[in-house]
Structure formats: structure tokens, C-alpha cells
Amino acid sequence: MRVRELLEKCGIGQQESILCACSDMLLDFSMTDYADFTATDVKEQQHLSMQLQEIAHVQNQLLQRQISYQTCCERLSFVESQLHMSALSQEKMREYRTMRRMHLEEKQQLEQEAFARASMQLFGTPAGRRTLCFKGVLYASAVSELERILVQLQNVPKESPLRSCPVFTDSLESWKRSAEEGRRFAVEGGPCLFGAYECTVHLHMADGMIHSFDFVTEQLVTADGSMDDRIYLVPFVRTHADSVRNVSFTFSKPSLTEDEFHSMQYVFETAKAFRAKAYIPLPDFSYEKYLHAVLELTALPRHVRSQTEAQFHDGVQCISQMYLDAAELLKKEYPSVPVVMICAESMELLHTYAEKRSAFLNPDTHLMKTLTTRQEKRESILDYITMPALPYYLDGITDIIQVDCMDETDSYRKCRKLHRNVLTIHPFLYPEPISSDGVNTAYYAAPPHKKYRTDSSREV
Fold first, then answer.
1. CA distance 69 to 122
2. For all residues of the chain together, what is the average pLDDT?
3. 339 conformational bin, left if phi > 0, alpha if psi -120 to 50, beta if neither
4. Closest CA to 131 of 9, 5, 16, 4
5. CA angle, corner 124, sides to 120 and 126, nearest 5?
6. Which residues contact 372 (CB under 8 A, 6 or more apart)?
7. Are 200 and 252 in contact (CB under 8 A)?
8. How far apart are CA 268 and CA 266, in angstroms?
9. Span 43-71, average pLDDT
10. Which residues is 41 bridged to in the sheet?
11. What is the percentage of the chain residues whose pLDDT exceeds 90?
12. 3-state SS string over the chain?
């Protein structure tokens, strides 16, 4: 759904949205129509846009020229001064309090009317500023709006695709304050390893049958290559654990998609803008944890499971290498950006990561107790919700800009909760565009719609 259509669906008139001044390219950006979008009023202290400050400026100009407002303020000031007199009788006190309430109400009414006139003058509507809220946590704005408040964002390249889509963030107040104080930032974010249709798990059964499941969606892959959303990998393995004789894989990812490349590029761009160090986790080690948990459900001998895990490791390492190669291209384009990449081969970094985060994983907390009902996913989920804190674990950096797709909203929220009072995560999340199938992002789209990077497109 296009952004302008999403605004309308949520009951936000385009002119009352803080995205009203954005380019047609942004307003026509097609993104997933999540059920978690709601409309919300924008408050000035959120610093999501300068539009409220602009309205306030015009409002003040109108009020300064309004005799009835000036008279109201003078009367209110007189009443306030009288209320501070020590020799007032109870009767006079009540009289002045009544007058104060009346003048305050009049003043508020005049200010509201001036606000509506100012908004009408600037944006063609008397309504206040509004925007989209995602999961009650993040708010839609745009680089073109935020860079007027956070000047470092002016360094995001004008041609960056990040400028052609909305970005979702929380209040910029702490982010702006940290920037003005010259605090040290880190930027964390990056891609998933692969999407749907790019890794298939084959279960070889005792009766000679082979049942294939997509690793990402976990759905059964049918004979025609489509997915059956009635049969899923883990429940199937649980039910047929004793009949599984072997497990093999087919990896069919020819290269990175454009969106996967952009997910790394945005990290580099933002790190350069803030003169920060970039941290990009490749979650191959998380994928391997999930596979290990699935294999533990089977009755396969330990040596067979070890061989299977080795085969999977080799496959995901080939894909990780694609990202490492892409990072080398980006390093040439952004030579001033120091980069830390962590993956299954980064043994020392992984050890530090596991050691440092353990202090925050208190099993008695509500968050940890309610983390997931899917035990096979538990270790992977722990990775996902702690990865944004990597700069803190590895280098002690406490101001972290998380540059990720919107699917990581829950990771952001839970990571922030885990590390409250220790570090600050500044969310900078973006929606991935709808693929050429018109329905899914490239992550879930079938291969013909994924827009893989070709050899000629692998130069930045």
C-alpha cells in the first residue's frame, strides 16, 4: 500500500500529516499494510518535525497583533498579581480566582483559534499535526523532516533510497541532546541472512519419502514449489521424530537482493553522517542455533546431527561471504567509517558478546519468562533482541543508533527494556518496499520478484 493510501486508511488527511511536505516519491512508496498502524497526534517535544514549531511561530505573530489577546493577558496578569497580595479577604480571593479561571479559559480559546489559523495558513488545514504510529512504539517521519532537527542527518546522501521512504523513530529529544553534547555514537543494524525460498530443509523419512520445508517461513514446500501454510516444520518434526532418518538442505540464493544491500548501505551512510563506528551482525550463528534445536527434536544419532549441522554451517557461510564481499565494496565507498562485522566465524567477538550480555538476561524477569512459547526459537530470539546492544557489549558505547527494517521493532523495544538506564537506543527504522509481486517484500517474495543484484550492479 502506498504511504498516501495508508495515511488515508488510518484517517489522517495528507495535509495534516507531517509527511505532507515530502516528495511524491516518498508518498507513493509502497510498503506492507501492517495491522499495527494507528493515527496519532504529534507533540512538539517529540521533535518528529519542525512543522509544530513553524505553526507556533505564526501563532505567536497572530496573537501579538490581536488586541483581544493582549487585553486578556493584561487582565490575567493583574489578577495573578492580586492573588499574591497577602491582605486579601476570603471573598476577594474567591472573586479573583473565578476571574483567573475565566481569563485562562479565554486565553486558551484565543490561542487555539490562532493555532488553527496558523495551521490553515501554512498547511491548508486547521487541524494539528498527525502521523502514523507503529505498534504504539514508533512514529513515522522522514529524513527530510528530521534533518531540520538533527543536523547530522543532512549528511545522508541526497540519492539514498532512505530518503524515498518514511522512517520510524521515537522522540528525538534524547538523540538531539546527545548530539548537541558531542556524545559518542555507534550505528548498529543490517540484514537477515536470507529470505523465503532461499533455503529448503529436506526431511528424509523411514518410508523413503522426503518432506521439504522452507527454512524462513517453516512451511511445507509442495510439489509445485508453493508453500502449504497448514503444515509447519517444528510440529511436523515433533510428530514424526522417530521416522526422520536424515536431514539435508538446498541453498538457492544466487546473490544479495537490492534491499539486502541497502540494509547494509544505510548503516554505512548513517555511521558516516554521525562520524560513528558501524556494527553489522550477520545472524548465521542464530540460524545455526535454531537448526540445532530442531535437530534435537529428532531421534537422529549424534554423529548424524553433527554432520547435518556441518552441512548447514557450510551453506550459510557461503551466504555470509556474500555480505562480507558487499561490505568490502561499501568500505571503499565509505573509507572513513570503521566497521565491526560479527558472524559465526568471529569466535572472539561472539565470546565477548555472550559474556557481556549474560548480565542482562535475568531469568526471573517478566520479559525473560514471557520471551516466547517456542523453545526452539528461544536462543535465536535472545540473539535478535540483544544484537542492537552490540556496540555496548564490545566497546562500551551507550548511544546507539539502530538502523534496521521495521520488522525489528520488537527487537528494539525488548532490547531497550533489557538495558534500561544503561544505554540509549535511538531507533531509525525503515519499511522495505513491496516487491514486483505487488504483495510481499523481497524477503518473502518468490525468486522472480526478489530483484537480485547482478554482476554489473555490485559496484556501489
1. 21
2. 95
3. beta
4. 16
5. 40
6. 378, 381
7. yes
8. 5
9. 94
10. 130
11. 91
12. CEHHHHHHHCCCCHHHECCCCCCHHHHCCECCCCCCEEEEECCHHHCCCCHHHHHHHHHHHHHHCCHHHHHHHHHHHHHHHHHCCCCCCHHHHHHHHHHHHHHHHHHHHHHHHHHHHHHHHHHCCCCCCEEEEECCCEEEECHHHHCCCCHHHHHCCCCCHHHHCCEEECCCHHHHHHHHCCCCEEEEECCCCCCCCCEEEEEEECCCCEEEEECCCCEEECCCCCEEEEEEHHHHHHHCHHHEEEEEEEECCCCCEHHHHHHHHHHHHHHHHCCCEEEEECCHHHHHHHHHHHHHCCCCCHHHHHHHHHHHHHHHHHHHHHHHHHHHHHHHHCCCCCEEEECCCCHHHHHHHHHHHHHHCCCCCHHHHCCCCCHHHHHHHHHHHHHHHHHHHHHCCCEEEEEEEHHHHHHHHHHHHHCCCCCEEEEEEECCCECCCCCCECCCCCHHHCCECCHHHCCC
How many Å apart are CA 221 and CA 215, to the nearest integer?
10
pTM (whole model) above 0.85: yes
Q: What is the pLDDT of residues 156-166, one digit of tens each?
A: 999 999 999 99
Q: Please tell me the distance from the alpha carbon of residue 377 to that of residue 108, in angstroms, as a whole number.
A: 54
Which distant-in-sequence residues (6+ apart) come within 8 Å of 50 by Cβ? 145, 148, 149
By the 8 A CB rule, do 269 and 337 touch?
Answer: no
- Residue 246 near residue 240, CB atoms below 8 Å: no
CB 254 within 8 A of CB 455: no
The confidence score (pLDDT) of residue 456 equals 43
d(CA 152, CA 175): 11
Which class for 55: exposed (0-12), middle (13-18), buried (19 or more C-beta within 10 A)? buried
Q: What is the pLDDT at residue 460?
A: 42
260-299 pLDDT, tens digit per residue, is: 999 999 999 999 999 999 999 999 999 999 999 999 999 9
Position 112, amino acid: Q
Amino acid at 99: M
Instruction: Identify residue 182 by its one-letter amino acid code.
Output: G
- Predicted local confidence at residue 455, as pLDDT: 59
Nearest C-alpha neighbor of 296 from the set 357, 227, 234: 234
Q: Dihedral sign for Cα 351, 271, 54, 166, please.
A: negative
What the block records as the C-alpha cell of 189 is 543494524
